[in-house]
Each structure stands twice: as structure tokens, then as C-alpha cells.
User: What shape does this take?
Amino acid sequence: MTNTSPAPAPCTDTPALDGQYVLDVVVRLPKTMGIRATVAESRAAFTDDHVHMLLLTEGSRLVGTLVAGDLPGSAADEALACDYATLEGRTVPPHLPAEDARQLLLMTGQRRSAVMDDSGRLLGLLCLTRRLTHFCTENDVAARASERHC
Assistant: This one.
């Protein structure tokens, strides 16, 4: 018996990142928390299923990044979240080709990376979509935010 079903259509959801750099695809106004944010405030932020990484800043300078797994269960609620934050392995430079950044995130099993310049100034957040093929846009973030406020 032969299979008469049509061949599957080729995947058209491929990255269109050629010629683009991180700075071209970054969310430029991500939510941030100050360096005085507590563990309790951070845990509360992670209850939003769209929050995967917190960016801890002092002014425009990125001081650390935090993912939920960074906070041990034993951490006191009043402790500073910054004590558990890191930059190591969680930042990319703005002039890295976007496809290289996507591949780096895939290799490390991450979907978020902070973008900062050489002086430590936060430039934005790089957010790989669930499909892992492209990056979230400012419009995507705004649409999700408006859904939460309805």
C-alpha cells in the first residue's frame, strides 16, 4: 500500500536574522529592578509567567541578572536579590551578529540575555521566542503587557 498523502510543506519559520545585530533585535526598554530589590520582591516578579530574567540596575548600569533558579529556598525574603545575581554567561555585546547570539543562547539552553555596552550600561534584553527561531520585539512585549492589564 502506498502513501498518497501530500508531502509536508517546507518550514517557513526560519530565522530572518541575516545582516542583523543584537542591537537591531533587542527589547530596548525591559523591566528592571533596582539593586535594593529584595528576594521577596524578586520571587513575586517571577510569579508572572512571562518573566524569565530580572535585570538589576543602578541607574543605567546593569549590576546583575537573576533567574528564579538563582534564589535558594533558604534565602531570606528580606535579603537583597543582588546577592544572588550574576552577569557571567548572561550578557552579550550589542554588535554581535543576531544569529550568533541565537546560536549562543541555544547552546547554553537559555532564552534571555542582557545586552550591555563596554561601560556596563544596560542597552536592553534579548528574548528568544518559544519557537527558538527569532527574537521577541517591542510590540510582542507591549501586547503581552496590555493583555495582563485587561
